[in-house]
Here is the input.
Amino acid sequence: MTTPDPDRVTLYDAENRLIGWIDRGDPVRLDGTTWIPETDPLFATIEEVADFCAAATARLGVPPVTVRARRGATRAEYLDGEIRVPPLDVGGAWAMRGLVVMHELAHHLAHVAGDVDGHGPGFRTHLYRVLHDLGQPTNARLLELGFAAATRPAKDWAATIGKLLAKAESTANTAEAETFAAAAQELATRHAIDLALARDAVRADHTPELPEEQTYPLGKPGQRWLRIAVVLYTGIARVNEVSCFIASNSTAVYPTGFPSDIAMTNALFESLRAQMVRAANAWIATGEYKDEVVVQYDRWGRDHWKPMHASTARKSFYEAFVHRVLDRLREGHEQAVRAWADEHAENPTGAEVALLSKREKVAAAHEAARQRLNVRGTWRGASTGARSEAGQAAGFRAGSAASVRPESARRLPGGRSALGR
Here is the structure.
């Protein structure tokens, strides 16, 4: 039975936001103060991570920790005195940095101290201490403020969404899973509608929630499947009324929107990305794609039949998964707006008006950012090429059964996910 860890997703989102600030290198305005984030060390080898951890544990006054390489690229984790990090050669560039390693060191401190609250207050105290004592006091404060800001809104709606999607994930019936997942997406949209109405109704003597710009890193230059990640993230963002700029090399997106909407986008992206990778890995392992062939033509127009490559099958799986999941999210969003209108007969267009007002505010903030940053050009989009029909069918099925559950993106204690290879 899994131990409840309600703060995990919120903390990961705050850490991702901090990583974006660090990598961007710009001053950060938060809590009425301008902050300059410290630089974060990057590691080239597991041996460098081990040396860093040896010096860190000595400075922190705790027993040393063992550092090992993980063969899978999707997680960094801590377990019983051992930190496991995916190295660069398996796609672990996202994990080979100080903030990720210090997160796992904080799990070590919590383990030594006997704290068992997952990512709760006890763990966060250890994490802030690790950052502060290892030369990143400003980053520690930014992370603390970012987490606090993310937890200010009421959590009743999030708890209900979690319960619905726990049911979606636990049932073996695909139809039931889709029903629960759709209900959860509708509730998420209803929450966004309520927030939009509250923003418009705020009194003049109060400061309303305003759109803001954030950075969300997707990976390092040259990492595979980044374009798929961009399509998934920006599709989720559109459903949640968030606009995005995209890095020319697809390594990051820069969402503009209301903080609560960006937080929902980040949580859904992390969950669905991890589910997509797990489902693809399981399907690739069946070898079903090996029954297919690809036709290629030489310069004289002669056709050549070649076996289907696993990477082509995976790409087709990912594309179909993303297409199906985004369709479901849009359907859930539209259903939520219709349901709100049915329940508020005295003001049936209130939701649409509120959402339109929110879109206009986000669009204005997005355009202001475009002009200030002199953003030019158009993102090239996902690449074309050979297709696997079996991969598309399997990806569509997996997208239909996917659970829109933010908590499902990271399951193991101290684990965090990245797009698979």
